[in-house]
Amino acid sequence: MMFDLACEPGGGDGANTDDDDRLLTIRGRIRGTSSPGSVYRAWVSFDRNSEEFDDGACTCPAYTGYRYEVCKHMAALVFHFADHPDLFRGFGQSHAAGSSVDLLDYMERLDELESRRREAKRNALLRATGVDAGHADAAHTAVFGSPRSAARVPAPLAMVGPGQVSLEPTVALRNRVWSVSFRILNLANASSYVLKSVSRFVLDMDRGEFEQYGQKLAFTHTPDMLDGYGRAVLRFMRRAVEARRNALMASHAYMPVNVERDLILSEDELAQLLRISEGRRLDLIYERWMRSTPERVAVDGVERPIRITMRRAKQGATEGYALRGDVCIDEIIEGAERSYMLVGPGPAAVAGAATGSGSSDGEDSPAAAARALSAMSVREIADLPDSELSRLGLLGMGGMGGMGGTGGISGPDGSASGAGAGYGEGRRFCRFPEDCEPLRPILTTLCDGDPDGRFVSDDDLPLFARTLLPLLERAGVDGDVPEPVRELKPQPAEPEFYLDRTEDGVTCTLKVRYGAREVGVLPSVPGDRGGLRDLAAERAALAVVRRYFAVSDSRRPAVIDRDETYAVVRLFDEGLKALHAAGAVFTTPAFDRLLAPRPPKARLAVVMNGGLVDVSLLADEVPPDEVGALLASYRRRQRFHRLKDGTLVPLGEHDAGLDAALATARDLGLADDAFEKGDGTVEVPGFQAFMLDAAVDDADKDDGFRAFVGDVKVIDPSRYAVPKSLAGVLRPYQADGFRWLMTLCDKGFGGILADEMGLGKSVQFIAMLLARREASEREAADGAGRGPSLIVCPASLVYNWAAEFAKFAPSLAVETVAGPKAQRKALLDGLRDGSGDGGRASRPDVLITSYDLLRLDAAEYRGLAFDAMAIDEAQVIKNHTTKVARAVKSIDARHRFALTGTPVENRLAELWSIFDFLMPGLLGTFKRFHERYEMPIANDAYGDEGRAQAAKLKALTGVFILRRLKSQVLTDLPDKLENVVTVRLEGEQRRLYAAHEQRLRLLLTHEDARDFNAERIRILAELTKLRQICCDPRLLYANAKDRSAKLAAIEELVDTCVSEGKKALVFSQFTSFLELIAARLKARGTAYYTITGETPKKRRVELVDRFNGDDVPVFLISLKAGNTGLNLTGASVVIHADPWWNAAAQDQATDRAHRIGQTRDVNVYQIVAKDTIEERMLKLQAAKSEVARQVLGDGSAAGGVAALTRDDLLGLLNA
């Protein structure tokens, strides 16, 4: 059927195009053929001239949306237009003659929706005020003369209000197929109508359609028109229709769902319908009744208990028992969440009903009725006419077998109303007991309504008692079972395993209990064959025993030999679980002691033994001499460890105590098996005590250990008095440093005095040497027993140290090992020759030499023993492979110290080299240090692993490093104001820089890691060229133009200093750049001094003194020559002409002016070329300094050029 037909010019998509005069579009609404309730909208456009198809669409499921695809509705629309074009609105008219079909159609739909909204609003108002819908329409007619919405609802129709419509299901079972149909009820006038299409009703409800079922019922289909039960049934109907639609879609059958009057149900769907109908009655058409009219049956919301009776019976000559259920189970409906059953009265109830009706004489007596019924099957009873049923008392009786109910037709609320009872009276749906689910097949047999029941002969009673009876009891079915039958039920076999521990090992005795009777299986008891036994269960229990025990003789218990540790472990690991799963397990106290209740708590204990620390591994309830073996078992990942007395100690997969002990052993540089040897105690050097102090609980430290550590961590100020000659000279923090040095000496340790540059490290060490000389004189007048001290420093500082001794400790005899080779040799030979004569006058107190001379004179120092040795600017030995480092470490000195403001310049390996000089072994081998500390910290400085290893390294070395910053201890020191002056390269300088940078970038990009390492020197040379161009192109190209941005900035800063009466230090790595600066200063008439690597050592001291005392405003200094040992407090301005890779070296240079004695604020200017490698170097310095900050506690160092990786360099070249 087609309606709302229209045609219009143009395309069907509604867009205005040039084709509007060429195309013609027809539209219409088509009702589906297979489902009349489905209406689809279709349109087709085609060419007026060629009559060829252009486009189209349809709302039916079969249309997929592809262009040029046509469904049957679109085809029917075209055929209909060809036959009857005059039926299409707009045919033959111009485009402007009428409204657009699309627009008109849309407006009509809006009007329809508005009508539905008004209807719903009216119903809500009526429901809120309690006014009946019919009365409201009547009042409307009385006032206005016509009913409301007369165009849609004829006057005679009976309108209903909200909640006045319900749905009544009728369930049917035909040909073993469940189905349901529905009647729609007008609760206002008790009228009802058959629902002809379930799917159409659901669609009407979804769309809010107004439908008429007859003169007594018409309403707008919205859920609020239904009562509560009706809405629940509607939800059920929607789910059913949706399920069938999904099934069709899954099978790729794109057709509408068409459910007419009868809805075929699965058992789960029927169970859902029964669930929402609990407490009500519904109509049932049941095929076994052989009746086509429905009967009312109740739906109970409770489980119906089932009882089985068992009475003596005889079948022919065979005697036995008859089993009969007290209820007749006609059907069981299995639901996903809940199952139901259709039940009727049992045979006893039927017989009881028969005896209570009819006459008392002749064949109509109750006894006759009972005999007649007992001889008939349920089907035969169902075939009886109503008159015969009434005579037998099966009609009109209330509540057969106690099932209750009055029958008749139910009222609007579903309750029974009306007199009389149908054939379904006494039958009802009720919940199926969940416990009886496994018995479903046998229950329908026992409860089939047969009055004779099911016969079990006496010969089969043991089989019944062994099989069916326990099943019925487990299901909770109440049964009247005679005691003789119950006695035939075998008792379940209950295995019992008895475990014991003897001298031979672990034994297992197996017994099986049958109720109060006990049977010995292993060892077997001769003659114990009486009574019923479950031999299969006994064999299964014995098989479990054999899996874990040896059974050599059935007359003896099973056993595991005491030496078979693996078998015992297997028993505890898995055997006990298997035994518990098979039966009850009983153990003796001796067996219980075989397994320790819990893993032992392991811990380390430390005892001070002279200058060494004894470290022991302890574990609760484990003898000390067996803890090592316990650790060995744990390292081999064994689940249990067996002690010497046979006790098994469980070992977890991860034991915190043992893991901590192993980790500490590795931190100490010990092998994993160190505690497994001897008595489990290892000796470590005293300097390891401070790391152990953090790893061991206080309760496990002896008094000597606590005192040893406490003396170093908390130094008593009264213990060491500052020499009187220096009492008024040393600042408080310097006095603390002196006491720290003295403490380390007394404990036999070395250390790093790492104070920031300018805090007076030399005077602190001089005070220590002076105090030890004075203490030696008090102990022995000739000072015997202590040799001289040795100080090794850069060549430029040899005479500085001599001057410091002369100033602060003139009483000490100081010799500088300098000058020609012969002179140095004679001095050392004389020291060697006079070392044992006890004379003080022939022997100096202190020797001072340089690193280079020590390397050359290393052989001359053999045989000399020094009391104390200090290496100043200790970073000189940062590379442990150099000859200088090896020469320094070869010196025989009782106490070794390092003085440096930058213990770490480039990488952590430098710290290892210094400690390898101070206390060899503290940080282990270089390889171990590299793998354990350097790589994790360098690669993951900000991650968890890097931080953890840095914390461990700090705990290990922290007590041996004393570092103070000026900001912490010199509150009276003027401020250091740091500034970055950015200059921009222009013209030829910019072009030269860009060309070199691009060349280096290409070089790095096309080389892999192997090539990078091989070409490192060449790459570093290219980097140097880039930095030189940033300073001045003339450093590379002699013919370059005299235009340097940096030179101009430096000149401006110097002019400002001169005009303000300040002095400036100008540092540069490139002496050639210093020459260009000097030439510019000379041209401007500005006086200056210069120090480079070529300046003799004594000349440097002279220039420093002159600069601090005269009016020369500028001091030009090469970075490497002047960043140590110079005191230039006369200057208050520091200019770094070019940034250096190592920020620590720059800081040292700055500290030539910013140090003790400075009275003015120091302004530091760093000249940096913008958008060049210099600007990116500053960022790289900040990142690299994080490593030193984590270990030393401040960012005192940054990675140098040697520490740069390929990625670092690429980062420097890529802005």
TL;DR of this structure?
The protein is of the alpha/beta class and 1215 residues long.
The percent of residues in helical segments reads 25-40%
Q: CATH fold name of the largest domain, please?
A: Rossmann fold
Overall strand count: 44
* Name of the CATH homologous superfamily of the largest domain: P-loop containing nucleotide triphosphate hydrolases
Low-confidence stretches: 94-104, 138-155, 349-368, 393-424, 835-840
Overall outline? flat
Keywords: ATP-binding, Helicase, Hydrolase, Metal-binding, Nucleotide-binding, Zinc, Zinc-finger
GO molecular function: ATP binding; DNA translocase activity; helicase activity; hydrolase activity; zinc ion binding
Domain SWIM-type: 40-82
Pfam families: Helicase_C, SNF2-rel_dom, SNF2_assoc
Give a structural overview.
With 1215 residues, the protein is of the alpha/beta class. It folds into 7 domains: 2-98, no CATH class; 110-265, no CATH class; 270-483, no CATH class; 493-592; 602-709, no CATH class; 735-906, Rossmann fold (3-Layer(aba) Sandwich); 976-1213, P-loop containing nucleotide triphosphate hydrolases (Rossmann fold), CATH 3.40.50.300. 38% of the residues lie in helices and 21% in strands. The chain is built from 41 helices and 44 strands. The strands form 10 sheets. Strands 5, 6, 7, 10, 11, 12, 15, 16 and 19 form a 9-stranded mixed sheet that branches. Strands 34-35-33-36-37-32-38 form a 7-stranded parallel sheet. It has a 6-stranded parallel sheet with strand order 39-44-43-40-42-41, with helices on both faces. Helix 23 (761-779) crosses helix 24. It starts with a strand and ends with a helix.
